[in-house]
Amino acid sequence: MAFEFHLPDIGEGVVEGEIVSWKVKEGDIIKLDQPIVEIMTDKATVEIPSPRAGRVAKINYAAGQICPVGKVLIVIDEAGGNGKVDVHAAPAGVDAPQLMIAAQMPAPTGAVKPAPRGAIEVIDATPRTGGRVLATPATRRIAHQLGVDLGNVAPTGKRGRVTTEDVRGAASGTIAHGPAPVLDEPAMRTPARAPITIARGGEEERVPLRGLRKKIAENMQRASQTIAQFTYVEEIDMTELVAVRERAKNRAAERGVKLTYLPFIVKAVVSGLKKWPALNAALDESTQEIVRKKYYHVGIAAQGPQGLSVSVLRDADRRSIFELAKEIERLGEAVRTGTATRDELTGSTFTISSLGKLGGVMATPIVNFPEVGIVGVHKIEERPAVRNGQIVARWLMNLSISLDHRLVDGWDGAMFLQDVKSLLEDPTTMFMEMV
């Protein structure tokens, strides 16, 4: 008996996944829960296990291709295996936060939404002749509240996506109802402008844009097209903090902790965010609400083997300096080895970008959308400075902050960085601020 395995919704709002690599080939005999494919979504690569035992009858998408949610990813001939599994039960050993998939609907007619611990329910399951409506969960929720049939709304979003504005316009009558044009999958991925073709001009190497590099390109383009970004820079005198870290290094080493300057910077940033909540926020475009978050999940942007990744220090305000140092090291190792989970790479509320010793003099990092701010950490070096009319050697560093001017005024951004500066320049006050 042939079992068609459809790609479910691996995360809220995900409509497709890119095949990174197959771990099986057609004709292979596979076991239940055996890893069969790696799929890239957002900035995380997830490994999907087989929901059936049997023989691989057909693989529908090759490495580098895009598989839309709901499409048949692989066909498994169960007659060629030695076991079966209830399609409504979670496969053993699969952790929902790692994969968010534990069951497979046999014939989905709409988007699938993972519920806690892998249970799956079908949402917006109205069949649509010749294709499906592309819309985010927030847009679908607004359509339900306003009583708008998404199938009768003409999409204006990229790749044929119905936007919240389309729904509101249809509800108010400012946009005429009518059957929305149905696009096939290649058309959905066609950009609004004509693609640029680079002519060959000599010896060159062509590398497919796929995987993490492709996701980075998409996220950076989306951020630059959405955010009204500005940058502010301040010089920080790190001399006192350099001395504090030097004294604390041995104690940290006794606990198996490598102590860098980053945990101190995280603490100072979190303290500043508590005073300036407009920076620990995001814009909910579907409801036109500014969401000011009372939790502090700090993203750490750093270079990994496949490109830039943002690992997340959850509840950074509740951790000690040593705890932060240990978690930063753990997450960094997970990024370097490619073992970081989706949960470890998503959900940040504010980001710090650091290149360590290669930090340079000054940079303007791009805001990690949909956040509203990102701090750039630059190299610390001994330079001459004037103190009390005398030229003395001090350990100096520049901090830059890029902000979304739609939500944050220049005054707020500058005052935030001034507060961070005061804590880093006087570590005693930083420790007094800790809870």
Question: Can you give a write-up of this model?
Answer:
With 435 residues, the protein is of the alpha+beta class. It has helices at residues 96-99, 137-146, 164-172, 185-188, 211-226, 239-254, 262-275, 321-337, 342-345, 410-425, 427-433; strands spanning 2-6, 16-22, 29-30, 35-41, 44-49, 54-59, 66-68, 72-77, 112-114, 120-122, 229-237, 281-284, 289-292, 298-304, 307-313, 350-354, 373-377, 381-387, 390-404. The radius of gyration is 25 Å and the shape is globular. Mean pLDDT is 79; it is low at 83-131 and 174-191.
Radius of gyration: 25 Å
Q: Helical stretch count?
A: 11
**N-to-C span:** 60 Å
Query: Globular, elongated, flat, extended or rod-shaped: what is the shape?
Result: globular
Total beta-strand segments: 19
Helix content: 25-40%
Order of SSEs, N→C? EEEEEEEEHEEHHHHEHHEEEEHHEEEEHH
Mean pLDDT equals 79
Unreliable spans: 83-131, 174-191
Instruction: Please outline the major beta sheet.
Output: 7 strands, mixed
Helical/strand content category: alpha+beta
Strand coverage percent:
25-35%
